Amino acid sequence: MSDSIETTPRSTPVALIVAVGAALLAALGGLVWSYSLNGKLTTTQTELADAKQKNVQLAADLRETNARLRVTSEETAQSLGLTQRQMDARAQQIIAREQVENKRLEAAQQQTAQQVTAVQSDVSTVKTDVGGVKTDVAKTQTDLAGAITQLQSMKGDLSDHSSLIARNHDELEILKHKGDRNYYEFTLNKGDKKPVGTVSIELKKTDSKKARFTLVVYADDMKYEKKDRNVNEPLQFYSGKDRGLFEIVVNTISSKNEITGYLSTPKTSPAPAGM
Question: Which of 169 and 123 is assigned the larger pLDDT?
Answer without folding.
Answer: 169
